[in-house]
Amino acid sequence: MNPKHLFVAGVCAGLLATGCAKEDRRTIIPAGPAGSVAGASASATGGATVRPAAPLSAPRERHTATLLAGGDVLLVGGSGQGGMVLDTAEVCTAAGTVIPTGRLSQRRIHHTATLLPGGRVLVAGGQDAYSGASLRSTEVYDPTSRAFGPGPDMTAARSGHTATLVATAAGTRVLIAGGSTGSASGIPAFLASAETFDPATGAFAALKSAMVQPRGLGVAIVMGGGKVLILGGYTTQGSTLAAAASEVYDPATEQFSPAGRAAAERLEASLVLTAGGSPLVAGGITTAQGVSTTAEVFDVRTSSFLSLRASMLSPRRGHTATSAQAGQVLFAGGYDGSRALGTTEVYSEPAGAVSGSGGFSAGPALGTPRAYHTATLLPSGEVLVCGGESAPAQPMASCERVTLGSTPAAGTGGLPPAYPVPPTAGGFPFPGTGGLPGVQPPGGTIAPAHVCPIGKVGGWTKPGFFGGVWNWITGLFRSAPVIDFISPGAGRAQDLVTITGKHFSKDLADLKVYVGGEDAVIHSLSDTVIVVHVPASARTGEVYVVVKGDKSNTKPFTIL
To answer: What is the full DSSP assignment across 141-174?
Structure first.
């Protein structure tokens, strides 16, 4: 045997002989009342504030909001006073002013607006009236001239579709999926077709692969690895039920495939990434609850949903969910039934915990109840909340800036994070009552393991001489970090970038991430997924990870 390896084996045996490496004296903490989270606080997050922002030039709700390079926010279309669908747009500037900008060629509601590489914005589809037919037309906003120009027609007329920027081997594309054809009779037909837009050529191309099922007014998000999760929304003509089954789009193959079935079908729900990088769907309208308080995370490894033990503090539909600083998610406004809410709440997870192990706590109150508004994370870390309606058919022009405190709400201790959604024989599945395999079942959470007095093996604290020896030993066998994929492959200052790979670290002290030559602020991290903010001074260049001095491979990244 190699003498160095013999020495390592001897030291390891000595450490194991203390008995500490085997010790796992976990303590069961009694769970709180049904729907509560052990250790979670119901008070507002410390240091959170809400302050008024410059009002819009006119009331609008169900509009889109797009963060532009430099920190401006473009607001497009929606519905105004008297239910009139709007052809106007305006910019909330980084300086805090509001500037009306060029008009659209058509009135639009239920459209999409997507930031393209280079800084322009693609505005696609929608309806020019609440009960009108859907539009095939698109428009492109130029932030330099602050004007809209004609874009190419889509291959199909769509409203209530999803638009997602994806990275492919051939370059960046915008995935346009599903939606409705609209109908003058008020009974729309929902689409299973999809297409992509190539910003380089300015052309749309229909995908040969159709969605797993027709879907309108669903939600979509890019996950670590670059695939797109699509869920919720209507599925059939005249349907009053939303879709519980989800699907995943793979940009590499341009194929849609079935994914897990959620615990509840959802309409007007929110979909956002947690600090751990998992998609979190919350609230919306469900058959079982009406307006729901439930939330679920999507496990990318098993392509299944896990129902959170924690519930939202208020039922919400037509609300917003925004990934903010310190890995927190801000849920704002919405309807709890027929009443617009002026409350917010914050979802956060314990540092280093698995996704879905966090809890909800009360956030700062908005100045005005609102639903169908927009919420945009600004480079400053504030969330800009704009427009919406205070009651049905009562659109608003007011805006607010929300700043969250630096202390996230306490979580559940990390285990168990959630209940798996059981399979059902027909109908919609609902949260199970059994625990996860190998995890304490409902009725309690598991406290952190006992701390070995002299330092623990495999992530335990290792002070002094023992710490130095152990760090040297682990360094002999440590593998260099590897980046498999980054998403998106282009962005602007403060955008979130997801880095997927292996041999990362859960300890911030061990890890550095560089984007375009600059040290990036880490939003969340695990052994396989890191989410960072694009530094303000970053240049087009490379992304790489350094763990304890070991540098990963690099991936190209374009600054918009």
So the answer is: EETTTTEEEE-PPPSS-BBS-EEEEEEETTEEEE
